[in-house]
Amino acid sequence: MQYSMEKLSGNKIKISFTAPASAFEDAVQKAYIKTRGRYQIQGFRKGKAPRKLIERMYGGNIFHDDALEILFPDAYVDAVEKEELHPVDSPKVDVEPIEKGQEVKFSCEVLVYPEIKLGDYRGIEITRTLHTVTREELDARLKQEQKQMARSVEITDRAAKDGDEVNLDYSGSVDGVKFDGGTAERQKLVIGSKSFIPGFEEQLIGMNIGEEKDITVTFPAEYNAEELKDKDAVFHVKINAISHEELPELDDEFAADVSEFETLKEYTDDLKKKLQEAADEQATSQAKQAMIRKVVESAEIDIPDPMVEDKLNDQLREMDWRMRKQGLDIKKYRELTGQTEAQMRDMYRSEARDNLKTELVIAEIVKTENIDANPEKLDDILREYAEAMGKTLEDLKKELNENQLHYFQDRVKTNAALDLLWDSAVVKDEKETKEPAKKADTPKRTAVKKPAVKYAKDGK
User: Judging by beta carbons within 10 Å of its beta carbon (0-12, 13-18, 19+), is residue 146 exposed, middle or buried?
Assistant: First the structure.
C-alpha cells in the first residue's frame, strides 16, 4: 500500500494512504467473513447468507467500515516504523468517498513526539550565592542538641509557670452545654506552646497541683468547627502534675555525651563545619536548579497536549500514592479542600508541562551528546536501591526486566547530562547579603514551585 507523509505543524503529521482496489476488495471479503454472523436473512441460517444478498439488503457499503479497520492498522504501523515516528496519541482517520472497483484513499492525523531545538547549554553563566553560617544559627543548633538530651523533672514545690508541662483534666462548655472534643483527662500541655485556644494556656500559670478552676476563653473566628467560631467557652480545669524540661549545661561533659569529641570547643567547631558544608551544598543545589531552568528556557519545543495530560496523570498518581502512605487518598483530599477533579488538574497542569519540558530537554542533551549509561554508575544506583529493598545487587539484577533496567539506565544518563552542564557552567560565587527588614504591613509573597531535575544520588 502506498503512503505519503505531510508535516502539518511542529508535531502534527498527516499520513495519506492509497489502497489498490484489489486490496480493498480482499479486506471487504475478510470483513464479510468476520461479521456475517451479525445479519439475519430470511431463508438462511444466521451467518450463512451470501455477501451479495447482505449488501443488497443493507447497502453496498455495509462492510466498508470493517474493511478499513482491517486495512488501516497494518498500513499505519508500517508507515510509522518506516518513518521512525513516535506517536503520542491515537490517530484520527478520514476516508474519501469509496467507489466500487476504484482505489481507496484515506488519511490520518497524529501528534508525534515533539521536535526539540536546544539553545545554549554549555558554558551557562550562573551565580552561586554562598551563605556563611552565623553564630545565631550555630547556637540554635546547639539548642536543638540540648533539647534532645533534656530530662523531665517533676515539680512539686511551686505553681505552674510559662514553659512548664502540665498534666490536666478539662471539660469545656458553651452556654452550659458541653461540646464534642471539649473534654479530656490527663492531657499533657506545655504552657506557652500555643497548642490550645488563645488565652487558655496563660490562665494555667500560677495554678498548683490538685487545684481546680474555671477558665473562660473565646474561640477564634477562623476556628475549624463552624458551630464554635467566635463563641465564649468555659473550661473547668484541674492540674494533676507539673514538670519542667531541664537542659544539660553546654560544657565538655555535654560534648563527650553527644559526640566523639572531648571538649565543647572541638564539638562546636565540628558542628559549625558541618553546618557550613550543608549551607554550601544547598547553595550549589540552588545554582544547579537555576542553571537547568536557563537551559530549559532557552530550548524551543511544542509539547502536544496529550503528553502533558499523561505527565499530569503520573504526577497525580504519585501524589495519591504518597497520600495513601499517610492514611489519606487524593479523593479524600479533594473533599477536604473542596476541589473538583477538574480544578485539581487545572492547578497542576502548568507544573506538569514545565516538568515534562525539563525532562524532554535533558533527554535531548543525552541524545545530542551520545551519553551512555556508565556501568559503574549504574551499579551504584542499583546497589543503593537493592540495599533499601534488603537485597543484594546480584539478586536485584536477576529480577529486573528490560523496562526496569532501562529506567535505571535513564537515571544514570540524566545524571551524566546534568554533570556535563554543571562542569561546563561558568559559576560566579558571591556572598549572601542580608535583606533589609520588611515593614509589618508588607504582604508575603507566595512561593512559586519551579520544575526541578534531581540527581539520582547525593543531590549533586
Answer: middle
Rg of the chain (C-alpha set): 35
The C-alpha cell at 263 is 571538649
| Residue ranges matching CATH 3.30.70.1050 in the chain | 2-113
The set of cell numbers assigned to 149 is 538530651
Q: Tell me the CA distances in angstroms from 119 to 15, 204, 307, one per residue in order.
A: 30, 65, 22
Closest to 165 (Cα-Cα) out of 153, 157, 183: 153
CB atoms within 10 A of CB 95: 15
Nearest Cα neighbor of 308 from 354, 343, 353 is: 353
**Three-class SS of residue 251?**
coil
Where does CATH 3.10.50.40 sit in the chain? 151-246
97 residue type, one letter:
P
Find cell 530549559 and name the residue: 296
Four-way CATH pick for 151-246: 3.40.50.720, 3.20.20.70, 3.30.1490.190, 3.10.50.40: 3.10.50.40
The strand ranges marked E within 50-103 are 92-95
| Contacts for 42 with CB less than 8 Å, ≥ 6 apart | none
**pLDDT reported for residue 435:** 56
Cα 233 to chain center, whole Å? Answer: 42
**Type of residue numbered 318:** E
Those residues with Cβ within 8 angstroms of residue 248's Cβ, 6 or more apart along the chain or in another chain = 146, 149, 150, 254, 257
Q: Residue 209 contacts by C-beta under 8 Å, 6 or more apart in sequence?
A: 156, 239, 240, 241, 242
Contacts (Cβ under 8 Å, ≥6 apart) of 113 = 11, 85, 86, 87, 88
CATH superfamily for 2-113 is Trigger factor ribosome-binding domain (3.30.70.1050)
Structure-block grid coordinates of residue 35? 461479521
The structure's pTM equals: 0.69
Dihedral (CA of 394, 398, 399, 401) sign: positive
Eight-state DSSP code of residue 376:
H
The pLDDT averaged over each successive group of 10 residues in the chain (460 residues) is 87 92 93 90 87 90 92 92 89 91 92 91 95 94 91 92 93 90 92 90 94 93 85 94 92 92 94 96 95 95 90 92 88 87 93 94 94 93 92 91 91 95 95 58 33 39
Which amino acid is located at 457 in the chain?
K
Q: Which residues contact 250 (CB under 8 A, 6 or more apart)?
A: 142, 146, 264
Under 8 Å between Cβ of 242 and 209 = yes
